[in-house]
Amino acid sequence: MKYAYYPGCSLLSTAAGYDFSFREVCNTLGIELAEVPGWICCGSTPAHSTSHLLALALPLKNLQLAQKTGSDKMVVPCAACFSRFKFALSECEKDPRLKKQMMEILEGPFPEGIRVVHPLELFSQDDLLKKIKSAVKNHTPELKLVCYYGCLLTRPPKVTQFDHCENPITMDKILSAIGMAPQPWSYKTDCCGASLVLTETEVSLQLIQKLIDQAKLAGAQAIALACTLCHTNLDTRQKDLEKASGNSYRMPVLFFTQLLGLAFGIPPKKLGLNKHLTSAEQVIKQFS
Amino acid sequence: MELADHGWVSNLAREVYQRSGENVYLCFQCQKCSAGCPVNFAMDYTPAQLLEAVRLDQESLVLASKTAWLCASCETCTTRCPQEVDLAKIMDTIKMISLEKGTSALPKVSSFYHSFLLDLKFFGRIYELGLMMWLKLQTREFTKDLELGMEMMRRRNLKIIPHFVRHREVQKIFNKVQELERSAR
Fold this sequence. Notes:
The complex is a heterodimer.
Chain A: E1 2-5, H1 16-29, E2 32-35, H2 44-48, H3 52-67, E3 73-75, H4 79-94, H5 96-106, E4 115-117, H6 119-123, H7 126-135, E5 144-148, H8 157-160, H9 170-177, E6 181-182, H10 196-199, H11 201-217, E7 222-225, H12 228-236, H13 238-245, E8 253-255, H14 256-263, H15 281-287
Parallel strand pairs in A: 1-2, 1-3, 3-4, 5-6, 5-7, 7-8
Helix pairs in contact in A: 1-14, 3-4, 3-5, 4-5
Chain B: H1 11-20, H2 32-36, H3 47-55, H4 59-64, H5 67-70, H6 76-80, H7 87-100, H8 107-123, H9 128-139, H10 146-154, H11 167-184
């Protein structure tokens, strides 16, 4: 199984743990990754907020590059990038005029026939779930956690065509396969404020606080997620919340691939767990 | 349904339609978008109210409203709208119209967009440290999140040295887009 791999900018910096752990887990499961040669930024929110054309051209440029790997599937772990790729493909499919404009901008053929998949989609396939189960080395007493999907993996469903938009279950399935106990909660797809945290910090902090409070109420000992911005917001802002509210937080926030890595017996440092601002030690301990 | 089927059409509604293909006259004010919006508590007008203002041609109100700039692009409104109006796209469109008229109801947010795109155009991939410094120069909030930034550096969560990837090709894409957008106007 060979996939083109588009890490995206965050996976090289603030979410390096996601990149490390995803590569490690793929390695264990025998999934071959071919990094897209010389990939560029997808444009993210600043592009789609300021120019419809730019927001489509940047992802499509990357899909053109991905075709060079010879694979017809590209895996994108960052939920924000994943959404931009899905949008670019669906908008051009709807509007042939737009497609023509894109070919003009990119000076080349439209990247036809390449599918964009998210790691959750990949790992929740039946054959891989079986492989995941048999690769578990560290059996733990059931760790209670909540699966937090965020906004962009499932919304809008016509564009992302992945899981259920109000109650997704793929991450719950994958983590149950390694013996975790995902708790039911109503905030799976609520927003963390995304990049507003940099400019309208107070607004974003209210959303982050609600998410962590609700995770606690659901009895979670950790939050598992699959989005780089969600991770940055939930992991790095807990000190700010403590200062503002006087409550103690310390809720470990892990990428679901890091949990898979721990279950497969991969050392925490190789999974980037030392990079978290909120200690994940409580979770790591359960695995040893 | 085409825009013209609605009889009188406001100038602003027409502009939104031409740019985004979204028809604000389809909205029947069920308020699902506004009830589900995670940032509604911070907005001066709810998303449904802003749509109504577009229909009523209240351009100055729409451009002075913080609503579109606070939109986190979470796509909840777009997902839940029973009339399939893509509200998130309309929010983007309102921001584009504002920027072209040289205004922004939340200059900090537009400075972030500007800094991000400048960074992207220059390096090809986002260089966070450069982005943060450029943003601080614009917003003048030099001490904001400084402690957090230092901690991120200490844990090597921010790269010190930037990548330069295909920045010529990226600049070409920016130029082509600008050219096409100019000729469309």
